[in-house]
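Run log // design_07
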């Protein structure tokens, strides 16, 4: 048997492995690392390394993602605590895996990757609703699969910090398929139901950053659906946001308590030093003080905790020090200064502004960076494994082959999950 069929089979196996990694996004990252290792081994056995490397070298996103990682890594040179700096770099592993995901992704299998992700979300949502029912309706139910971190967490595998941004993207993808791809009543009911259950899951999960990201994507989806009627789009967007917020506030006591707490602590943050909102305000103010003192190159990725402790002791001694400003923009600026800020702007901004083919995915290519740009204001999400993995996976799959497709006729609608 010739070698070509074997190579094609390896490529197909790797594409299925990539779909399995998509399935891991709302679950755990440990299996994703094992799957990625198997993928890398098969990728090397497959051969054609010269061609693959040339393809990677021709893709700007590969250089941008690796460049951002490289800028942070370089800042170790002016870090005193390189041990801590290396721990921070370990949290950016998926930046290094981006070229592998890009090379393995197959343009014609994008529907498969989305289907794997949405199937995993549906499983997690079912488990989360069971946990909510056990906590609030039928306390006698047997214990389910539930993360043990914060009181009120209903997510099965990861806490609300990780879970709700993933739900936000899943809700957008369900809405996108409902509005742009579903051609039968069965599919409309399927994706409409997934959108509704995802919205409810967001309301009971309690993650505020993920909810803000979801609302931003709802607004974007309305303007994408009514692209030629901005007044209608604005009205629909406002109605959707109001419906989610008002419905959630009056329909979920947990969501109501989280909103009330956020508003109260924002107004009285000095009197409530233990509140998450108060802490984020203080973290941001002190991180800005650090950056103002080191604007060109930052303090180095390893020295943020030490430098924050020093600034905190001077300006806000009543608050506990932190290792993370809970804002990825401030994290990168304080770690690597102006070069870090430019690198991050490219990682998030280039996919948003880049022109792609009109293949049915152009709207999703905008939605993914919009979500990340929004939620990175509230947490260092590219430092968080599940969400970082989600961004790298979807960016790789969405832009795989897009450059060549720009010069080809439109490829038609997204493939349906098979």
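design_07 sequence
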């Amino acid at each position: 048997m010739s070698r070509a069929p074997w190579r094609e089979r390896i490529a197909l196996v790797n594409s299925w492995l990539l779909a399995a990694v998509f399935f891991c996004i709302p679950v755990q990252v440990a299996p994703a690392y094992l799957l990625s290792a198997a993928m890398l081994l098969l990728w090397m056995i497959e051969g054609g390394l010269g061609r693959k490397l040339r393809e990677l070298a021709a893709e700007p996103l590969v250089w941008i993602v690796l460049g951002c990682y490289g800028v942070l890594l370089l800042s170790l040179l002016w870090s005193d605590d390189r041990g801590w700096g290396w721990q921070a770099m370990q949290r950016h592993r998926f930046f290094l895996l981006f070229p592998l995901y890009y090379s393995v992704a197959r343009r014609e299998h994008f529907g498969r990757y989305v289907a794997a992700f949405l199937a995993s979300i549906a499983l997690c949502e079912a488990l989360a609703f069971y946990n909510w029912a056990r906590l609030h309706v039928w306390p006698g139910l047997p214990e389910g699969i539930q993360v043990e971190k914060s009181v009120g967490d209903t997510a099965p595998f990861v806490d609300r910090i990780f879970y709700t941004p993933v739900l936000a993207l899943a809700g957008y993808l369900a809405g996108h398929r409902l509005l742009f791809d579903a051609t039968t009543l069965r599919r409309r009911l399927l994706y409409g139901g997934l959108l509704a259950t995802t919205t409810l899951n967001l309301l009971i999960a309690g993650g505020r950053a993920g909810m803000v990201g979801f609302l931003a994507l709802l607004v974007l989806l309305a303007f994408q659906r009514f692209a030629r009627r901005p007044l209608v789009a604005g009205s629909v967007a406002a109605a959707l946001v109001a419906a989610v917020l008002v419905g959630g506030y009056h329909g979920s006591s947990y969501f109501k308590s989280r909103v009330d707490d956020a508003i109260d602590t924002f107004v009285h943050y000095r009197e409530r030093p233990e509140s998450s909102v108060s802490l984020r305000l203080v973290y941001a103010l002190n991180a800005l003080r650090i950056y103002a003192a080191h604007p060109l190159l930052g303090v180095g990725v390893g020295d943020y905790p030490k430098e924050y402790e020093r600034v905190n002791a001077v300006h806000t001694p009543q608050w506990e020090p932190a290792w993370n400003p809970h804002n990825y923009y401030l994290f990168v600026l304080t770690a690597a200064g102006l070069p870090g800020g430019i690198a991050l702007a490219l990682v998030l901004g280039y996919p948003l502004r880049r022109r792609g083919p009109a293949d049915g995915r152009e709207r999703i290519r905008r939605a993914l960076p919009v979500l990340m740009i929004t939620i990175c204001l509230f947490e260092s999400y590219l430092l968080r494994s599940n969400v970082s993995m989600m961004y790298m996976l979807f960016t790789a799959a969405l832009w795989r082959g897009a450059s060549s497709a720009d010069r080809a006729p439109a490829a038609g609608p997204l493939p349906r999950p098979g």
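The CA atoms of residues 21 and 33 lie 8 Å apart.
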